[in-house]
Specification:
The chain is α/β, with parallel strands linked by helices. Helices cover 46% and strands 14% of the residues. The chain has eleven helices and five strands, in the order ααααβαββαβαβαααα.
């Protein structure tokens, strides 16, 4: 992380304060993003960030210290557009889709064992460019939402975040083996590479696209099918989940549900930023 936000500090402040009623902002959005990066990646509480800022402002006079309430208020409303974190390109894309859980507290496992309390968890669903390992779509929900229900939204997001680029394949595991998903991908002219259940019927039952995929898998055999469609590239999504959890931990520190979901989403947006600005 660098202090590039200092270069446009005054201009960015002028933009956000233009026509603003009431008290003016004293910190530009890029600086708030930097502070939230510190909060999320280093798990530094807001009060400690306030103390960190006091010392930092002594070293860099242009930076004005902010109280923890201001940091929290603006940080929890920080909106990072995923498209802005991606490198520009016109190459076709193969995406891998998967989901993983984020704990709602660092004490979750201990509490389950000691007090038999179910604390719940957050489910993060992502689509990943298998070549660049960039996250191109994300949906954060609670644990009650099934994996398959996020698939169409993730593909739509991926298309919106990659304007002008063709998504050639969508790779996913058996949790996404649904007729409506195969039909949707056929409509989008995207090759489905989805692991089908071993007992799947070759009858169409409203989805000729899925029936075709079932017949092909049975004719080829799993190993040949896997090799033909590069199903192993699905692990790109697993690699991203592993990287994010190593960088910023497996839990969120927020206590309100909406802030938990927001913090989890920031973890993955910051991963893209670090990936493309190292």
């Amino acid at each position: 992380m660098t202090f590039t936000f200092l270069d446009n500090w005054d201009n960015d402040l002028e933009k956000i304060n233009r026509d603003k009623l009431g008290r003016k902002f004293e910190s530009p959005p890029a600086f708030i993003q930097f502070l939230m990066m510190v909060h999320v990646i280093f798990n530094l509480p807001y009060r400690q960030i306030e103390g960190f800022l006091r010392k930092l402002s002594d070293i860099v006079p242009q930076i004005k210290a902010a109280d923890y309430t201001t940091i929290w208020r603006r940080g929890t409303k920080l909106d990072i557009k995923l498209a802005d974190t991606l490198k520009e390109s016109d190459e076709p894309v193969v995406i891998a889709l998967d989901s993983s859980g984020i704990k709602v507290t660092n004490r979750g496992e201990w509490m389950r064992e000691k007090w038999k309390i179910h604390r719940g968890w957050i489910k993060v669903n992502i689509s990943v460019n298998v070549k660049t390992k960039e996250i191109v779509g994300i949906e954060v929900t609670d644990e009650t939402v099934s994996d398959g229900s996020s698939f169409i939204s993730l593909v739509d997001q991926s298309e919106n975040n990659l304007p002008g680029r063709k998504i050639e394949k969508a790779i996913a595991d058996g949790a996404f083996d649904r007729r409506e998903i195969f039909d949707y991908l056929q409509h989008k002219h995207i090759q489905p590479v989805i692991k089908i259940r071993s007992n799947a019927s070759i009858k169409a039952r409203g989805s000729p696209s899925r029936a075709k995929a079932v017949r092909e898998l049975k004719d080829f055999g799993y190993l040949a099918w896997r090799q033909k469609y590069d199903y192993g590239k699905r692990w790109a999504a697993e690699t991203v989940f592993s990287s994010v959890k190593r960088i910023s931990g497996e839990h969120v520190s927020a206590t309100k549900t909406e802030n938990m979901l927001h913090e989890a989403e920031l973890k993955f947006a910051f991963y893209n930023i670090l990936l493309n600005h190292r």
